[in-house]
Amino acid sequence: MTDHTDLILRSLLPATAETFDERVERQASTVADMLEGGDLNNPGFALGIEIEAYAMDDGGLVRLPDDVFDAPCDRELGLHNAELHTDPTPFDEDGIAAQADQLRSSLEAARAVARESGAEIVLDAMWAVPPAEGTRSYLGDVASEDGVTIARNMTESTRYYALDNEILQQTDGSVPISVPGADVEFPSILCESLTSSIQPHLQLPDADDLPAYYNAAIRTLGPVLALVTNSPLLPVDLYDVDDPERLLDETHHELRIPAFEQSINAAWNKVRVPGDIGTTADTLEYLLDDPTCAPFLREWVADDDRTTIDGRLWEFDHKRGTYWRWVRSVVGGQPVGGGDRRSIRIEYRPLPTQPTVAGNVGLQVLVAGLLRGIVATDHPLATLDHEAAEESFYAAVADGIDADLAWVTADGERTQQKDDIYDELFSLARAGLAAQDVPKDVVERYIDPLEARWEQRTTPSTWKLDRVRAELAGGDSFEEAVSAMQRAYQEYSRSETPVVDWD
Questions:
Q1: Which residue range is the domain that position 140 belongs to?
Q2: Backbone angles phi, psi at 342, to 5 degrees
Q3: What is the pLDDT of residue 334?
Q4: CATH number (domain holding residue 320)
Q5: Average pLDDT of 335-356?
Q6: Exposed (0-12), middle (13-18) or buried (19+): which is 183, by Cβ within 10 Å?
Q7: What is the dihedral of CA 490, 495, 447, 273, to 10 degrees?
Q8: Is residue 213 included in any domain, yes or no?
Q9: Is residue 503 part of a domain?
Q10: Per-residue pLDDT for 447 more than 50?
């Protein structure tokens, strides 16, 4: 642990933060010059995605063996986590097919290796069945050396360790999470590994168009999230449950959001819905103004960090990695085709991992089509006041498909009528996909199952809660009911059956 300890202590030095911030400021000026010179423009729109998952065996959560990561997937925060990601492809029929093919191939390869050790990689948003030693023991297993905390079940990464230690310094050594039915504290930000998310990416051809897409994206957060909620339950051993039915009635449909926000925002108000932007350059100012967290210098680490194209913007890219907003712009990222070129993209970040590959790609297609459709049709959604959009988002976090949502119609009228909201949402998504010449049969393949969720008022979280209720009614204890639900979830997930067709 000595090498990690030395780097972590260096990261926490005031002199490191001063050097880091000076470099970020210079590099932001370089990006501003790229913007001014049109160097971030590209021939067309492009897609990408990141998908997080976790591993289970027949008993509960398990750590993944190292050789899983020889397959095309990456490590994430916890030893039980894996991340799938795609290379960017054009936003068209072939590009969508390539996104799906990349994900299926990567998932199949990683699952094959995991199965050799008795584990299964699960596409899910939050694990509810604990590991053998219990959730508190697993997430709370920490060691200390020279004043540095190391969570033993955290992926071995100096960056993760430094983030953890800086946040623990800011929060007196404890990370709290308070949600219906549970008030718990952990000695590490490893508690964030309770959650699994997806991040659709939309690369824009013209950097000057970012404000239109970015501000529209903020207004879509509530209605989109309400369709896809998938984390209504913490691990069952974190609850002290006298009345399971009451817990099921009171729990949030998307616990990922408060879990992540609370674990970080006890130190800084970093995880939130972002403010609107007036120009693309505003995103650079927002990043510069954001509190620096766990700074690193490029010379401390290897040169093969995949998040950078070259070394010129290393610290700038590193700081963006701790700019935790539910919509985030990446100015100067990897474009289609790679090489020395750069791009600008939107990362749509509040979404839970969906049960199937098709469902995750469908959500990627919906988000890209919706944002494209709003801008292509000059829809007035961006005139919805920011406060209403934020309230709509947190209503979806709490109440899922039953949330009170806010929208502005094509006629410029404010509405909370969800039939009108979803009629326009799916119409705009189809318009955006048509603008990208995506054939109707491809649109139907990916959008129709999501539209059916609205029509049937069924999402992964509603299915989970209903299934647990059914198991309780059959005489199971709360722990048994959650375990039975999880087994059924995994079986349906493997089958690639849309959630609206689950029993």
A1: 2-497
A2: -130, 170
A3: 76
A4: 3.30.590.20
A5: 88
A6: exposed
A7: 20
A8: yes
A9: no
A10: yes
